[in-house]
Write a structure and sequence with these properties.
single chain; 236 residues; mainly alpha; 10 helices; 83% helix
Length: 236
């Protein structure tokens, strides 16, 4: 695999989507600004906007950056270039993840700031050092961003492997609105989840295990996507 070719293809994808990308970044910044205001309505709007940025970016990237090439009939041109299919899929993975993380950084900041868990008060209550406080906040930030990135990886993998709008939308809607809402509504009512969430809130070993699990899910999904696409025989 030619890493330079992958980088140039990823740069092409980012350049094509630069205006929507900048719009989502700006909306994430607006969510942070609203989250910092001392107004309940503004903070509620900031929370909603931050969540919508993460969800809308997920839909936009898979529909435009992945499925859009086939729909716009530009995939044939890309395949006619002196590039291998595995370099194309590697570039799609790289560009999509870079854009999603960049758009999600500010939105995640707003979500963490507005979370029902008062991270700063919980860390300050035990008299730990400033460095320890920063590490704890960073871990909680990584937990939120990692959760959304794991979800995005699954939807992205579905889009790349199936190249189907139907399957991709089913995966996105199912993960976000069925699985996500189900855990949000019914998870706190289950003793196992309640104990797990208490451990996360207190910065116990559950936090470290959650971060490791998210990293493994993202790595396995992206690796499996690359392997499955590389084994395809027909690309048009």
């Amino acid at each position: 695999m030619n890493l330079r070719t992958v980088a140039r293809l990823a740069q092409k994808d980012i350049s094509i989507l630069r205006w929507p990308f900048l719009l989502y970044v700006a909306l994430g910044g607006l969510a942070v600004g609203l989250a910092g205001l001392d107004d309940r309505a503004a903070r509620s709007l900031g929370l909603t906007l931050a969540a919508n940025v993460l969800i809308a970016t997920c839909f936009h990237l898979v529909l435009s950056n992945v499925l859009g090439e086939r729909q716009n009939r530009t995939l044939a041109f890309t395949l006619s270039l002196p590039v291998a299919p595995r370099e194309i899929v590697a570039a799609k993975l790289v560009s999509s993840v870079i854009m999603y993380v960049a758009c999600g950084l500010l939105a995640t900041t707003a979500l963490v700031h507005l979370a029902p868990v008062d991270v700063f008060a919980a860390m300050a209550s035990d008299g730990r050092s400033l460095l320890s406080h920063f590490a704890g906040w960073s871990a909680y930030f990584a937990l939120v961003l990692g959760g959304f990135l794991a979800l995005f990886s699954l939807v992205l993998a579905t889009a790349i492997v199936t190249e189907s709008h139907g399957w991709t939308m089913a995966a996105a809607v199912g993960l976000i609105f069925v699985v996500g809402n189900g855990l949000f509504l019914f998870g706190p009512k289950l003793d196992t989840f309640a104990r797990y969430f208490r451990g996360l809130r207190q910065g116990g070993p559950e936090l470290a295990w959650a971060l490791v699990a998210e990293a493994l899910v993202i790595a396995v999904v992206l690796w499996a996507t690359f392997r499955l696409y590389a084994r395809k025989q027909s690309f048009l």
